[in-house]
Amino acid sequence: MPHSDDLLWGAVGDISRFAALLTMAELGLADHLAQGPLDSAELAGRCGAHAPSLRRVLRELASMGLVRVAGPDAYDLTEKGTPLRSDVPDSVRSSIRMLGEESFWYAMGMLPATVREGGSAFMKRYGPLYDHLAANPDVSRMFDDYMTARAIPLTEGLVKRYDFPAAATMVDVAGGKGHILATVLHANPQMRGVLFDLEYVTRHARQTLEAEGLAGRAQVVPGDMFAGVPAGGDVYLLASVLHNWDDDDAVRILRNVREAMNDEGRVLILEVVLPDSEEPHLGKDIDMRMLAIFNGGTERSREQYAAVLGHAGLVLTDVVELGSGAHLIEARRR
């Protein structure tokens, strides 16, 4: 077990390392270095940076193994740094940029104030997240890219480890740009889909589904899940939705789904399920972001999901591990 001092000072150092990583992502350093080494002055010119400042960041990035020294004042991209490129599969560049975006960075830095006062400092300054995104298209696009990148490994686990009913209609509630729905439909050619989300989101979803050749099998419906969801579905998917809301709001959403679903329908909740132990866990890290950004947003344990489902007239029937720290919770009418 690491010494407590190592743990504490390691966390302090992580702030500096993340700042360097964010600089690498923001300036697109991995893209510029993809074709071979550059000296710091040339790299600064290409990415519009101050060369002496960039040189100091490159020194930190080299210590992290993301770049390497390739000659006097020259640097090259390493294999470890390749996922920071924009043009590679499973790129993490958009995710890093989103987590370091000004409002998100503010939210995490103000976590002590949020805990002290019992309300999100982010919401006091920026308002509800989705209103903030709707009012700031550049941030919204970055957020969509982050959610898409985050969903890729989860979606792969979903289609590999869960048997969808044949010829079913799946309603993807708050389905974003539609990448999860597209993956499920490609893997299940007899299924049809409905993507349901806010009006400003559905414009991007239509583009995604058309580009995937699924416009004939997938309908896009704008609306507010607190007012109701499209009726008649066999499967209702809520992927990274319920953790944004407190128990009362989560129950409201689930009750709307229960009222809309077919008699033999099922609800699929794609979330991180917290362990009962005190071990480190991805869900505990994400829960700090939920605490910082939302009033009431929270990660939950299996028992907590079962309780929320029960209040909505649903019963938890299965929990499937999808990998990458995520789970699929299946529920049906009680």
UniProtKB/TrEMBL annotation:
Listed name of the protein: Hydroxyneurosporene methyltransferase
Residue ranges crossing the lipid bilayer per the database entry: none
Active site, per annotation: 243
UniProt GO molecular function: O-methyltransferase activity; protein dimerization activity
Domain O-methyltransferase C-terminal, chain residue ranges per copy: 111-313
Any one of the GO BP annotations: methylation
SUPFAM superfamilies: S-adenosyl-L-methionine-dependent methyltransferases (SSF53335), Winged helix' DNA-binding domain (SSF46785)
PROSITE patterns: SAM_OMT_II
InterPro entries per the UniProt record, alphabetical: COMT-like, COMT_C, COMT_dimerisation, SAM-dependent_MTases_sf, WH-like_DNA-bd_sf, WH_DNA-bd_sf
Domain O-methyltransferase dimerisation: residue ranges: 19-79
UniProt KW keywords: Methyltransferase, S-adenosyl-L-methionine, Transferase
Pfam families in alphabetical order: Dimerisation (PF08100), Methyltransf_2 (PF00891)
